[in-house]
């Protein structure tokens, strides 16, 4: 394996590979390599992780995906990963709707408000930006809400995406995207726990590291490439050639 100034070139490539997969929020337990095209009002979310003004999120987004061409059905989730509770960060379910189909122009069509109707992002005033991941799964036959999650559909808080995926047998996601929303409408009246770790292991046992100072670029197929990582890889090649 090639090494450059003590840094494994192979590890750089591995980091690049895992980062390209990140269409869900950093540290989210589910990863997807294809992008949902999400539009809140007139705000098209690109790249993934864009900071969206809260007023733009009053209504559910319009969602399209060219990567899902099935005649079957799908299940859509929207999950906040950063809700402060008891000195830590937990997940809150903002939207869950099953029996999603495709209509014209690859637009997702919803049969109704869903099992958990859309709830607008409402992070506490003064907290760090919250990450909201939208992720689409193929819907298994005879899909139903696992019994241990029926109460969570009402309370929304303490949702667990990875546990739901396992309990419902959802498999691999079709595509995903995420936004960030921050509430700056007033003066903070509480203190908040530290931001959640963003190097959690995904359901496929693949970690998605963050790279401080890296700039996201959109590649073909909707994948995200972090310019900081690409620069490091190119620098590694150049250094090896010297």
Automatic annotation (TrEMBL):
<dbReference type="GO" id="GO:0030414">
    <property type="term" value="F:peptidase inhibitor activity"/>
</dbReference>
<feature type="signal peptide">
    <location>
        <begin position="1"/>
        <end position="22"/>
    </location>
</feature>
<dbReference type="GO" id="GO:0046578">
    <property type="term" value="P:regulation of Ras protein signal transduction"/>
</dbReference>
<dbReference type="Pfam" id="PF01161">
    <property type="entry name" value="PBP"/>
</dbReference>
<dbReference type="InterPro" id="IPR036610">
    <property type="entry name" value="PEBP-like_sf"/>
</dbReference>
<dbReference type="InterPro" id="IPR008914">
    <property type="entry name" value="PEBP"/>
</dbReference>
<feature type="region of interest" description="Disordered">
    <location>
        <begin position="186"/>
        <end position="208"/>
    </location>
</feature>
<dbReference type="InterPro" id="IPR035810">
    <property type="entry name" value="PEBP_euk"/>
</dbReference>
<dbReference type="GO" id="GO:0005543">
    <property type="term" value="F:phospholipid binding"/>
</dbReference>
<protein>
    <submittedName>
        <fullName>PEBP-like protein</fullName>
    </submittedName>
</protein>
<dbReference type="GO" id="GO:0030162">
    <property type="term" value="P:regulation of proteolysis"/>
</dbReference>
<feature type="compositionally biased region" description="Low complexity">
    <location>
        <begin position="198"/>
        <end position="208"/>
    </location>
</feature>
<keyword id="KW-0732">Signal</keyword>
């Amino acid at each position: 394996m090639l090494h450059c100034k003590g840094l494994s070139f192979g590890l750089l490539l591995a980091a690049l590979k895992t980062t390209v997969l990140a269409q869900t929020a950093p540290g989210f337990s589910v990863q997807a390599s294809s992008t949902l095209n999400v539009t809140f009002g007139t705000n098209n979310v690109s790249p993934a992780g864009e900071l969206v003004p809260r007023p733009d999120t009053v209504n559910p987004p319009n969602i399209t995906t060219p990567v899902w061409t099935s005649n079957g059905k799908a299940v859509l989730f929207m999950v906040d990963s950063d809700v402060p509770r008891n000195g830590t960060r937990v997940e809150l379910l903002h939207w869950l709707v099953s029996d999603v189909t495709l209509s014209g122009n690859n637009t997702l069509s919803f049969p109704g408000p869903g099992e958990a109707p859309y709830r607008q992002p409402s992070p506490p005033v003064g907290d760090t930006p919250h990450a909201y991941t939208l992720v689409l799964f193929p819907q298994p036959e005879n899909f139903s809400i696992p019994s241990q999650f029926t109460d969570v559909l009402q309370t929304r808080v303490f949702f667990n995406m990875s546990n739901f995926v396992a309990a419902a047998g959802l498999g691999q996601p079709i595509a995903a995207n995420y936004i960030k929303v921050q509430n700056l409408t007033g003066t903070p009246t509480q203190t908040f726990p530290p931001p959640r770790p963003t190097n959690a292991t995904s359901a496929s046992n693949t970690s998605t590291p963050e790279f401080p100072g890296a700039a996201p670029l959109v590649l073909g197929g909707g994948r995200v490439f972090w310019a900081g990582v690409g620069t490091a890889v190119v620098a590694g090649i150049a250094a090896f050639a010297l």
